[in-house]
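Researcher: I'd like a candidate sequence for this fold, 314 residues long. If you have to choose between options at a position, lean toward the conservative one.
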């Protein structure tokens, strides 16, 4: 895999029945652990701009390729990607380094994991910083059923679940084109095409907007998914209704200090009920789309470091 030489070299850590590829910055014995959790379809490399800034501020930065990604294990069973397994990996990672708790940072699907982790293991989460995806209220209806009722069969969350393997095959066949078309910013407002959005992206010959990253950085993501394929990462989506059941007994209100960073041009909606479920949250909006920490790295770093400093002073 063509990861630039200035990115940390990985170590491989056996946790929770899998092996995780883990990238680190900062000194382990300095304490102050902060664990960064990537989204879909991404890689630990998506945090390349945050790792040195956090390490310079005195944090032990731990960035795993989560199960199903990069050179980490890709179990074959769909249920091996539910919130209990994904959270269990992160807790076992804490144990491996000897930390009682840590600050967890998540983007996109990584944010979903951090919210769920905090519900399941509140004593192991010190602070939360999430990007793009706000806390998702559990509600009375399983999440995929709810999305199917609201958005229809072609919504990609629903399609991934109801037609397993179909999108996987298209994305695997068109890995470069899909990721090139996916990682865009300053997108024009155009009506959606009929059909499933991710399949449309994988087949579209002319990308919209501007590239989020240069060709060499994009190659890191492309080469990673050319090895793993997309099924293991899409299996995260195929556990949403299972996660809804697994979280049934968890207390729904998160008390930890939290920072929510939105992109004003992100297609993911902001939460109108965030304070109801995360009462100790601060909210920041940046002028960008979905790929917040890659589109606006300096602004993201300033927001995170300022908030962390304020928390330490309080």
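Model: Candidate sequence:
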């Amino acid at each position: 895999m063509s990861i630039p030489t200035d990115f940390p070299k990985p170590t491989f850590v056996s946790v929770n029945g899998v092996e995780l590829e883990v990238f680190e910055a900062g000194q382990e014995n300095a304490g102050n652990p902060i664990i960064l959790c990537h989204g879909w379809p991404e890689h630990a490399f998506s945090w390349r701009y945050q790792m040195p800034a956090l390490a310079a501020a005195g944090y032990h930065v731990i960035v795993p390729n989560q199960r199903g990604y990069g050179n980490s294990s890709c179990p074959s069973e769909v249920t091996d990607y539910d919130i209990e397994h994904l959270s269990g990996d992160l807790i076992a990672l804490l144990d491996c380094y000897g930390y009682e708790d840590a600050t967890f940072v998540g983007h996109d699907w990584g944010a979903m994991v951090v919210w769920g982790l905090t519900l399941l293991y509140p004593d192991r989460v010190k602070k939360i910083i999430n990007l793009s995806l706000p806390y998702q209220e559990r509600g009375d209806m399983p999440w995929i059923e709810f999305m199917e009722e609201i958005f229809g069969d072609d919504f990609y969350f629903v399609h991934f679940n109801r037609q397993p393997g179909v999108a996987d095959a298209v994305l695997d066949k068109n890995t470069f084109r899909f990721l090139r078309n996916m990682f865009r910013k300053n997108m024009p407002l155009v009506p959606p095409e009929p059909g499933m959005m991710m399949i449309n992206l994988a087949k579209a010959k002319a990308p919209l907007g501007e590239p989020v990253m240069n060709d060499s950085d994009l190659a890191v993501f492309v080469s990673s998914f050319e090895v793993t394929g997309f099924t293991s990462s899409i299996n995260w989506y195929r556990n949403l209704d299972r996660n809804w059941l697994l979280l049934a007994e968890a207390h729904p209100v998160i008390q930890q200090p939290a920072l929510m960073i939105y992109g004003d041009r992100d297609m993911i909606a902001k939460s109108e009920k965030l304070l109801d479920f995360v009462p100790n949250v601060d909210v920041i909006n940046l002028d960008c789309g979905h790929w917040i920490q890659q589109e606006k790295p300096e602004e993201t770093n300033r927001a995170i470091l300022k908030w962390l400093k304020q928390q330490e002073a309080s």
